[in-house]
Amino acid sequence: MIFLLIGKNSFFLKKRAREIKERYIKEGFSPFYFNFGKEGLDEFKRRISKESLFQKGKIFSIENFPFSENIFSLMGKDEKDVFILEKEAEEPKELPRFLSKYKIKIEKFPLLSEKELEKWVKKEFSKNNIFIGKDEISFLLGNLDQDLWGLYNEILKISAFKRFQGKVQKEEIEGLVDFPMKINIFGVIDKILSRNKKEAASSLENFFLEGESPYMIFSLLAKYLSLLLISKEARERMIKYQVFCQKIKEHPFVLRKTYYFSGFYSLSEIKKIYQKVFYLESLLKEGRILPQLASSLLVLNN
């Protein structure tokens, strides 16, 4: 039997692979792992032909495999063993036709939609006897995106802090959750556009003190300011939010945040800062300016 698990949602894909593996191990199968990125076809043949210590057979967890008919032919002829193929990637438009020759169960794991993700977060909290409101879910997801591994760990952390009862408050999320750097990037952009020079300079300085790369910081600033500029132009052209999201290939949570932020500033303000960041970023990449000076010029001359 061959299980082909494919999709970009690694959290649910790995969860499903673990469920299948545990089920067959309980039935007496012997577990094996094989990585085609490190080992070749000859070694795979040897592993398959090797006798199992268990009468039931072997269960293989396989990663980095090519869609090669030779490989699937070997697995297809092996009626005693079970194969779990894990492909963490965008599902191809068309899978190879030769797959239809073999006994394969294909399971797909696409990224969750915004509503599906909100529902999943609420369900995970409810498993721990915790209630979380819509605003708190939006705040949490707006800063952690589709990082389900991170979300799952933070849900457990918050639940433990709440002693597995009660309602989650926004202040508790802010205090407990280890947000990635990009939440602060939006904060810096907000401070720069609001002309809050002291706090903007302090935030940038903290990034450097924490060992973050100045090139990455300016690259992120340029990226999100670019999206902010596109969002503002869409607003001024009266393009509906749903249409805007369909046209821009970016994560929905990022688009929602930039679209929301764009309502607070003028097009000329955003364009001015974006051009300055773009210019300073190019100077940094060319080694023509020090990071601290670039930060000072960005903040003080605004």
Describe this structure in words.
With 302 residues, this protein is of the alpha/beta class. It folds into three domains: 2-108, Rossmann fold (3-Layer(aba) Sandwich), CATH 3.40.50; 114-176, Helicase, Ruva Protein, domain 3 (Orthogonal Bundle); 182-300, Zinc Finger, Delta Prime, domain 3. The protein is 58% helix and 11% strand. The chain is built from 14 helices and seven strands. It has helices spanning 10-26, 41-49, 69-77, 114-127, 134-144, 148-161, 170-176, 182-193, 197-209, 214-236, 241-247, 252-262, 267-285, 291-300; strands at 2-6, 30-35, 58-63, 82-87, 104-108, 130-131, 166-167. The strands form two sheets. It has a five-stranded parallel beta sheet with strand order 2-3-4-1-5, with helices on one face. Helix 9 packs antiparallel against helix 14, helix 10 (214-236) packs across helix 12 (252-262) and helix 10 runs antiparallel to helix 13. The mean pLDDT is 84.
Which helices and strands occur, and which strands form pairs?
Elements (H helix, E strand, L loop, with lengths): L1 E5 L3 H17 L3 E6 L5 H9 L8 E6 L5 H9 L4 E6 L16 E5 L5 H14 L2 E2 L2 H11 L3 H14 L4 E2 L2 H7 L5 H12 L3 H13 L4 H23 L4 H7 L4 H11 L4 H19 L5 H10 L2
Parallel strand pairs: 1-4, 1-5, 2-3, 3-4, 6-7
Helix pairs in contact: 4-5, 8-9, 8-10, 9-14, 10-12, 10-13, 13-14
